[in-house]
Amino acid sequence: MSVHNEDIAAIFDEMADLLEIEGANPFRVRAYRNAARSVRSLGRELAEMVAKGEDLTQLPGIGKDLAAKIVEIVQTGKAHALEKLHRELPATLEDLLHIPGLGPKRVKQLYDSLGIETVEQLAAAARAGRLRELPGFGEKTEQRVLDALAAHRTEERRFLFSVARQYAEPLAERLRRCPGVEQVVIAGSYRRGRETVGDLDILVTAQADSPVMQHFTGYDEVAEVVASGTTRATVILRSGLQVDLRVVPEDSFGAALHYFTGSKAHNIQIRRLGQQRGLKINEYGVFKDERVVAGKTEASVFKAVGLPLIPPELRENRGEIEAAREGRLPRLIERDDLRGDLHSHTRATDGQADMETMARAAREAGLEYLAITDHSRHLTVVHGLDEKRLLQQMEEIDRLNETLHGITLLKGIEVDILEDGRLDLPDQVLSRLDLVVGAVHDHFGLSEKKQTERILRAMEHKYFTILAHPSGRLLLQREAYAVDMPRVIEAARERGCYLELNAQPLRLDLDDTHCRLARERGVKISIDTDSHSPDGFANLRYGINQARRGWLEKDDVLNTRSLSRLRKHLKATMG
Ligand code: DGT
Ligand code: CA
Ligand code: CA
Questions:
Q1: What are phi and psi for residue 228, nearest 5 degrees?
Q2: Domain ends where: 106, 130, 154?
Q3: 103, 270, 416, 531: which has the fewest C-beta neighbours closer than 10 Å?
């Protein structure tokens, strides 16, 4: 059985949680958390790197000890250190940590003084009024726990698109190789390119005697078969991801594909349009008086209601049907439209490769230019660049550009936006760069007013080019900071600067609706990987997904420009 990056990250997260409950050294806890994050954002499977005997200590946040643990997990599927912790503390304590309002300290207190190990025991104790007696708890906290428990039950678990993809693609491949199988498409939110997915919805067409169902339920990653019949089955993979499979007749494939791609809100609107024309539309086809009139292809379903095919990424009932009717659907950007990347890191700060390696990897990814934007020194990132080191790096870029072929390096910086909106490096240094990427990395808790003013002030700065990961969110982990994004977009328009769509699968920041607002306001977006390693450029595809969901066309994106056009744009912002 293969071990995926997500399995490894989950073990590290659990280690961090349990160590925290144990009251271990905070540095140790943080090391595991950082490692989990690093593993999650990696573009390649660690199992593959281990198989090739690659040096894992080159990865960010992975030292010798963690590298050894990764090898152990890849080879055995588990970590001895975690098993040891499990012998000391019940594994169920981890579930308690996920209840809002309960940190490691409180969980330990509940365990030590009331012997609470599970969510059920916690609920019982809260209902019996036993929590309020604990030091530092009180009636209010008890009520908060009860409320959180009620919410906890209805909360659905979602997966990052990139994580779902690790499971989805091999499974789809397996189904494609099954005898008698003709078409395999992953529909649902996955096909719409959503940043997270709840479950996978796979559609298959196959010959009548195909063993596709057995192939599906017998897959070695399946942990549980929830339901299985002749044309549909539901399983849960070891990762916890649910997969629905439907085998549909070839003549209904388009109708089924449209139905199961969704979104539900979009489907309802399309069905309504059908009703106006006396048509019945469902997953089996388009019917007029019980007679099939369309449904073999998706295009035929749209055509039946008088529309051109709407790209899946737009099917959210956010005006795409009106746009289709009026012939103003956007021509969505594609991966090959991208010609450069304007945000990347090297070994000079927290990246893992030198500039030349990054440049070659970018060229390998089909790019013509790459901006090196290492961190400024304010940030807690080790080795942030000061003025002197930045100037040295700029000289090195000049030298490299003379020898590199097919790719040009641009001089940049990811400069911290300080709490008061000033930038972390003096003007005379910034003025010598090709571009300045500004980012918020601290003081996430400011009020919306203060945070917005801080960012606006930074953007007014003479040499400000691109606002990196504008909302600061980490998907499924950290909410965006409070900021008035429409105002930020407006300010970018007035100032003539750019907003980033950070393509890291954990960020995808700007989100789709704000990308669309930026486009409507005429603010160009820069789709960047923020790569810390040569694998990072593979993330551009996730950025493209999100850009398409944001209705972006090629022209709406800054880094679709040729290098010479790009230089003109940059010159305009850099004065
Ligand atoms: P997810 O899984 O939460 O990320 O989101 P989806 O969109 O994949 O939703 P899912 O898996 O519940 O259903 C897949 C598609 O099936 C959904 O996008 C639209 C269609 N669908 C499901 N339930 C209904 C329904 O009650 N009415 C209509 N019209 N379509 C539905
Ligand atoms: Ca789904
Ligand atoms: Ca589903």
A1: -155, 125
A2: 154
A3: 103
Q: Which CATH number goes with the domain that contains 407? A: 3.20.20.140
Average pLDDT over residues 32-53: 91
Q: Is the domain of 180 the same as that of 290? A: no
Q: Is the pLDDT of residue 152 over 80?
A: no
Do 16 and 107 lie in one domain? The reply is yes
Distance of CA 433 to the CA centre of its chain: 30
Report the greatest alpha carbon distance in the chain: 78
pLDDT tops 80 at residue 156: no
Asked if 511 and 471 count as a contact pair (C-beta separation under 8 A), the reply is yes
Same domain? For 136 and 213 the reply is no
* Percent of the residues in the chain that have a pLDDT greater than 70, as a whole number: 98
Give the mean model confidence (pLDDT) for residues 349-360.
94
Instruction: Say how many domains are in the chain.
Output: 4
One domain for residues 281 and 417: no
Question: Atom of ligand 1 at shortest distance to CA of 199?
Answer: 2
- Residue-wise pLDDT for 313-328, tens only, equals 999 999 999 999 999 9
Q: Round the average pLDDT of the chain to a whole number and report it.
A: 93
Residue nearest to ligand 1 atom 24, measured at CA: 264
Quick: pLDDT tens for 375-391: 998 765 567 899 999 99
Distance in Å, CA 260 to ligand 2 centroid: 8
Residue 38: pLDDT over 60: yes
Which ligand gives the minimal distance to the CA of 234?
Answer: 3
Distance in Å, CA 199 to ligand 2 centroid: 4
**Looking at the CA of 196, which ligand is closest?**
1
pLDDT, position 1: 59
Expressed as residue numbers, the domain containing 139 is 5-154
Q: Which residues line ligand 1 (CB under 6 A)?
A: 188-189, 194, 197-199, 201, 259-260, 262-264, 267-268
Contacts of the segment 395-400: beta carbons below 8 A, 24+ positions apart: 396/355, 397/355, 397/372, 400/355, 400/356, 400/359
